Amino acid sequence: MSQTLEIYVNSLTFSHVSNDPRVEPSLINISLALPKGSRTILVGANGAGKSTLLQILAGKRLIKNAEVQIKGKDVFREYPGGVAFLGTEWAMNPVVRGDIVVADFLDSVGGYRHKERRDSLLDILDVDLDWHMHAISDGERRRVQLVMGLMGEWDVLLLDEVTVDLDVLVRDDLLTFLKSDSEKRGATILYATHIFDGLNTFPTHVAHMRLGAFVKQPSPWPFVEVGASKLYNVALQWLRADREHRHELEKSGRKLRGARKDEVPRDSETFYSKYDYSH
User: Fold this and answer.
1) How many CB atoms lie within 10 A of CB 179?
2) Is 161 exposed, middle or buried (CB count within 10 Å of its CB: 0-12, 13-18, 19+)?
3) How far apart are CA 63 and CA 14, in angstroms?
4) Which domain of life, per UniProt (predicted)?
5) Which DSSP symbol is given to 3?
6) Interaxial angle between packed helices 168-185 and 138-150, expressed in degrees from 0 to 180 and rounded to the nearest 10
7) 67-70 and 73-74 strand pairing
8) Phi, psi (deg, nearest 5) at residue 155
9) How far apart, in whole angstroms, are the C-alpha atoms of residue 58 and residue 63?
10) Distance CA 248, CA 254 (A)
11) Residue closest to 174 by CA, chosen among 130, 120, 236, 245
């Protein structure tokens, strides 16, 4: 069955600290089956496991005792071609913050081999080839990353929060391009985001992750439930339910978040209060 699917995961559990049983796994018994040409939005609070799942699919984290395939190939033993992963950590790399002109930077990663798509993306993302990478904003640097990552003809695209720095016009133009590209070429997209405005017509599937597990498996969008016509409203409802669920767990002993109202003042609080001259 997995050979007919573009992305297939079976019984995946993963912990960042595998030798400490006190640390809860980041992913718990994850199974996933996405058809070719699908565009799936992952919804979940910070810490739900979305980024970890995408990094594993991109072959960036080693796992044991689970089946993880893209295009019918094991992502750790025979990683398939045509897979693009774009995450937020790229823009923090000191190499891409050096004094290099954007045109030279794109040529250095093979932009000349994909001239037609590269030029289309330069227009869509409104990138100036004469920019210097060290002298531009985070949003402009993110646009350059997207040109670099999308100019090749990918078959599977893994996106982790990479539109967060974009202004609303550039983001809308990018999503229009990605949807059209996916439909024309049958390409598959798995996209984790916290920005749901303007996404209503983008996905073919939507999924909900909570504390490392799927609450709702990727399901065809739009949903048939009453009041589920807008993705923003659905995401807001799910995230509120996630917080309420976590509060219930905290009552049962899970580590508490937020203010500690009945706690004795910390040593640092006592120390610094002696030197507080703001009053």
Assistant:
1) 16
2) middle
3) 7
4) Eukaryota
5) G
6) 10
7) antiparallel
8) -100, -35
9) 12
10) 9
11) 120
CB 237 within 8 A of CB 228: no
- The size of the chain, in residues, is 279
Residue 160: CB atoms within 10 Å: 23
pTM, two decimal places: 0.89
**Three-state secondary structure call for residue 88:** helix
DSSP secondary structure string for all residues of 180-241: HHHHHHT-EEEEE-S--TT-TTS-SEEEEEETTEEEEEEEESS-SSTT-S-HHHHHHHHHHH
- Helix, strand, coil percent content, the chain, rounded in steps of 5: 35, 20, 45
Q: Are 152 and 118 in contact (CB under 8 A)?
A: no
Do residues 89 and 120 make contact, with C-beta atoms less than 8 angstroms apart?
A: no
| Residue 161 vs residues 153, 178, 185, 240: alpha-carbon distances, Å | 21, 15, 23, 20
Tokens of 275: 């030197």
DSSP 27: E
Instruction: Please state whether the peptide bond connecting residue 220 to the residue before it is cis, i.e. omega within 30 degrees of 0.
Output: no
Beta strands, E only, 88-164 = 156-160
Residue 272, amino acid: Y
In SS3 terms, 74-119 reads as ECCCCCCCCEEEECHHHHHCHHHHCCCEHHHHHHHCCHHHHHHHHH
Instruction: Give Cβ neighbours of residue 118 (< 8 Å, ≥ 6 apart).
Output: 106, 111, 147, 151
Q: Going from the first residue of the chain to its last (279 residues), give the mean pLDDT of each consecutive group of 10, the final group possibly shorter.
A: 76 84 87 97 96 94 88 91 91 81 93 94 97 93 94 96 92 97 97 94 97 96 80 95 91 77 74 74
Q: What is the pLDDT of residue 2?
A: 41
